[in-house]
Design a protein that fits this description.
Shape: globular
Structural class: alpha/beta
Helix content: 40-55%
Strand content: 5-15%
Order of helices and strands: HEHEHEHEHEHHHHHHHEEHHEEEEE
Radius of gyration: 22 Å
Distance between the termini: 39 Å
Largest sheet: 5 strands, parallel
Strand order of the largest sheet: 2-3-4-1-5
Number of strands: 12
Length: 396
């Protein structure tokens, strides 16, 4: 235990607090037990250490541990936390919980048996975290941490403080908002870089090796997370990667299950299951018609990679229309319900409809369609029912 405490102090000393994601304020830290889930690489560990550094002195009452440490091969989490609690521990942060068998049951027991302890855990295997929700219900508040928004990326690049806006703000006041932002920065100057490498905060470590690291993240999900969760052969990871490549290189992908099966070698019987696993792992985004929803037995209307960085990583030839729609879907779906529209590209919250395109996109598809907008790439400021695409990167 002493070694784990010493390693925590080293991490406490090294963590920087100059650039802290706004997500830290989205969490109600007054909850006794908190879970933070999110795909690999979005910065959960850094956020956890930053919260501790900003709110606690390095005393025996606070501790951070990661469950991928060798210590937990021979020692149980419950007894470790119990020892910490009995020696005056008040707050413990537990990282990488999915690396530890039966973590949900032991955290449930910790909650019940140690009433004055505050605990925060993180997990990168979204499949395992989602599966454990039932065991932890009514005890733990779980937050979903996304990757960087375009706004956050620009903040990290420029050190400027930029406001976020609600979707209602953007559709009602997008011209004034765009003018206000453009007086501070030129968003299109950063947009292409964001699409290429800006969604995952680890780009700041080394931009040159970003895509190598992202490839490793993808492989870990395909070769470790999904096979462990779904009990499928690791060899099927190659089939899953083929599926991702097919989707990434397509015009906004409307699935034909027979065609996908032929191109990837995945049988029709397992295709739907694989798509759901990839969606739950946040490698894909599945777009459904509103009446069906995510729990529908039908196939999705369109399939996208989860974010534009994945597209640049997996596909040699990124389709620009697919790139635009992937960005829009990714940024909007974090706080809103996004569905396929019968007339345009997207319907949001059952109210707003959006048609995406380049700077020359016409208005004909939204004529006589209430609450509808054309979203254009490559423009700084819109007009009336035309909104610049980049502005949807300022929703969080």
């Amino acid at each position: 235990m002493e070694k784990l405490i010493s390693q925590f102090y080293e991490k406490y000393t090294r963590v920087q607090t100059d650039q802290v994601r706004d997500f830290i304020h989205a969490i109600d830290w007054n909850n006794r037990f908190i879970g933070i889930k999110g795909s690999r690489g979005v910065g959960k560990t850094t956020l956890l250490l930053q919260y501790i550094r900003l709110n606690f002195e390095p005393t025996k009452s606070v501790l951070y541990v990661s469950l991928d440490h060798l210590y937990f091969l021979e020692n149980t989490l419950y007894h470790f936390v119990d020892d910490f609690y009995k020696k005056g521990g008040a707050f413990i942060a537990i990282d990488e919980v999915h690396k530890y068998p039966n973590w949900a049951i032991e955290i449930k027991n910790i909650y019940d048996d140690m009433p004055h302890l505050r605990l925060v855990f993180t997990g990168s295997s979204l499949l395992h975290i989602n599966q454990a929700k039932a065991d932890l219900s009514r005890r733990i508040v779980i937050y979903n941490m996304p990757g960087l928004s375009l706004r956050e990326f620009i903040q990290f690049e420029t050190q400027l403080a930029l406001d976020s806006y609600s979707l209602q703000d953007i559709v009602d006041n997008h011209i004034a908002i765009a003018i206000q932002i453009i007086q501070q920065i030129k968003p299109l100057q950063y947009f292409e870089n964001y699409l290429n490498y800006g969604y995952y905060p680890f780009y700041m470590e080394n931009k040159n090796s970003f895509h190598q690291k992202l490839s490793e993240v993808i492989l870990t999900v395909l070769e470790v997370d999904i096979p462990q969760y779904a009990s499928i052969p690791v060899s099927n990871a190659l089939l899953l990667k083929k599926l991702l490549a097919v989707i990434s290189g397509s015009v906004p992908f409307k699935p034909n299950m027979n065609s996908i099966s032929e191109r990837t070698g995945i049988s029709l019987n397992t295709m739907k299951n694989y798509l759901k696993l990839l969606n739950d792992s946040q490698l894909l985004q599945l777009l459904y018609v509103e009446e069906k929803g995510i729990n529908s037995l039908g196939k999705p209307e369109k399939i996208f990679l989860n974010n534009s960085n994945l597209m640049h990583n997996i596909s040699a030839n990124v389709n620009v229309g697919n790139l635009r729609e992937t960005f829009f879907f990714n940024q909007v779906q974090y706080k809103h319900y996004v569905f396929a529209s019968l007339t345009v590209d997207f319907k949001v919250d059952g109210i707003y409809e959006f048609e995406l395109g380049g700077r020359n996109k016409k208005q004909k598809q939204i004529v006589d369609l209430p609450n509808s907008f054309v979203v254009k790439d490559g423009i700084e400021i819109g007009s009336n029912s035309t909104i610049p695409l980049w502005l949807f990167g300022f929703l969080y």
